Task: structure prediction
Amino acid sequence: MTSSPKPSRKLLAVASALSVVAGSMTMIPASFAANGNSSLPAASSAQNSNDECRHFSVSATQYQGLPGQYQLAYAPATSTLFTSFSSGRPPILTGGLGSWNVSSAPSLASVYQFPTVDFTPRGATEPSGKQIASPYGVGYDEATGYVWVAQTRNSTVSVVDPSTKKVIWTSAEGEVDHPREVRIDSATGKAFVSGSGGISVFDTTQHTLVKKIEFTNAKGEPDTAMNMHVDSADGKVYVPTLSAGTLKVINGKTLEVEKTIELHKDSADIALNASDVTIDKSLKEIYVSSQGDRKTGANSGVTVYDLETGAYKKSIPFGKQALAITSDEARDLLYVTDYGTGNVGVIDARTGTVVSEVSTGATSGANDVLVTPDGSAYALARSTEDASPIETNYTIDPATGEYRTSSTEPKGKDNADSPITPGVMVKLNTTIETTAKSASQASSEELVKTYTDGAKLYTTKDWTKGETLKLRGEGFKTQDGKGSVVAVKLNKGKISAKEEPKLNGKEGNSAGVWAYIQADENGNFTAELPYPTTANSSLKDDLNTGDQISVALLSGSMVENDTPRGGEALKATVTEQKAADTTCATVETSKVAAAPSGVTTQYPAGTPLTTAKNDEPTPAPSDSAKPEPTTPAPSDSAKPEPSTPAPSDSATSNEVVHEYKDGAKVYFPKTWEGEKLTFRGEGFKTKDGKGSVIAVKLNKGTISAKEEPKLEGAEANSSGVWAYIKADENGNFTATIDRPTVANSNLKEELKTGDKVAIYLLSGSLTENDNARGGMAVEYTFTTENQPKKDEAKDAPVNPSAPESSAPAESKDQAKDQSKAPADSLKPSAQEKGNSASKTSASSSQNTSSSNGSNSSKSSKSSLANTGASGVLIASGLGALALVAGAGILVARRRKA
Result:
């Protein structure tokens, strides 16, 4: 199992740029770096540890778990760990879903009891009794707060709302076959379910099957998709196949297999049985765990592949039956479970070394492992040999299907009473200390040049193939005491970059510059020069060992009053890379036994899960949600429109309100008339009380802007965003978006009668500590075929300098400014009389089965109109993105295609 993607905390070697360190502050200033599109190389992955050796200390604590534990999922907003459990072979008489609070020491908060179903033994035609529709795989949807489970024995997938204690949806017969694992991509609203025959992809809002991605083996027979890794940021899904011995890379948007990687076997004539996969983007590697031969342990371990090419790199043997794997990418660590021994391995991903092997206390059955954002790892395994039975009401009577309190269950051919023993949960903590390499391990820095003004340059005289050359300067000041700008040339400019680096975004004064360096206010700098190759420079042939490279530093003409400096600083000699195993002392694999916590787990009474009736909508995750009729699935005939919920106290008679689980509310006009739509929000705050950042999507992003909008000038986490909104310090906003047209979007034809545009507001991943929100907020159905004239549908950015009004929305002054007017003032009747565009309108329907806990209950009486909050103006993909929060205006301009 792989944990949710998270950003790396370390500084990476930069491709196509010069990494500059000024004083003690590390930065990569675009104005003093090579052109962002140039081909200057990144340093190799070993670059990250060239000057340090890593030392590992691993500790582990054992907690009493649940019987028959299988997989883990984590809810970061509440520090909740979910564990699925299904005890023994069918019929499953003991099972459910555990909810653990892991904000401190793990404590079992709830155990959810699933409905029971008929059990038909293999080969029989009639049921012989009952069993639990118990979960095996488990995944958490951060956007909705729902838990998805794979009910392997029943060949179904279900969605659980922990807040309402309901199973809100279960897949239909044939949609999944023997499902193994569930992974949620909250960014795209898709759930990926692996199992026999391949991957089933579901829509997380509508709970409909989107596509089946079929897997076959070399014989053309259906193959099993194993555990997956979903990379939301890059839109890829990685999944190994069980018998074909391949790794499939799936495009998360198109749902097509874009690459198939043949997996390596150390023992070619022995089965691989690949099981799980994870990645490390900073090291640009893929890691696949494989069980190998279950009797001999051959091929058990981890194989490593290049993330970009899929080329095999190395093998890391581990255990007898390596099963689940996950990555702590921030620290370049891997955790892998060994089902055969019950142990967990800790691997240094930089070196491919197993640094520790942790005994969970179980002698077999280490099933899953997960890393939380704080760097803690949790693993599940079977019970220990000396475990005592536990008495709970998580067990059913096989004849009646009723839950009962028991410490035994009938098992085996003779249905003899067998003790119900708890599994183990182990929490692992890995600390890393670093030490500098000794002088014999790394080349020593020395003073190589003192300039006439006293400036000094320090570096090594050897330039290792494929690695950067580190320069350190002191006293590089201008004549008026500021930091100098220094140009670096190799062989007097004869070795030049394929794309000339730029200075402050402009061409410099001289050709053949390899890089620019900006000294800090004290005249000091540290810089790393990329190694020149035929790929990134004007070289026709790669440099050979022993070749010399003349390095010159020049200053004086690039900034006013700079001090003139020049001449060769050193001749660097090209040397071979040192072998990886000689850089640091050999790491011995430590043997660690998980220490019992000393705390007896308290098992709460089971919480029964009820099943939503077929004539009820999917309940929103809120105790105050009230069932309303759902919108039927789309068909060839027009869908009947759902009724508009009654407006809340703070909604006008022309508005509908959508409420999120945290209490945030958004108000939309009942109809979308004209080219723009204005809506407002209240209470959109982060967990630490700041204004949320919200992404707006139309039809889940299938309607996208011709030019993707940027968030404060940078690409954001998800494609298909129509606009971004920044709420003010009170969590309020007013936003105006453009109606999608052929001119401003990817639409092939203009919207016509019956077409629907659903608006989704998503938050949680765009700013730190934001609340997770998602799901459909409102849906508009267009009712006329008349389209605006071409010249009135042109892309036009919102004017960010329009004066802001502090008057309430109802005031006459604000009504004059359509860019900030309430929804009613945007109707065609309020537009200029000379407007000759045909009137286009759409009526709204509010989502009654929102995936994020929305409901239509009464809102707070406060609203944007009477708080005096500043509005938010948005131009989405139309040449500019303007965010207005409070009195601050952020504008990120973009070129048109």
Remarks:
- Helices lie at 812-816, 864-867.
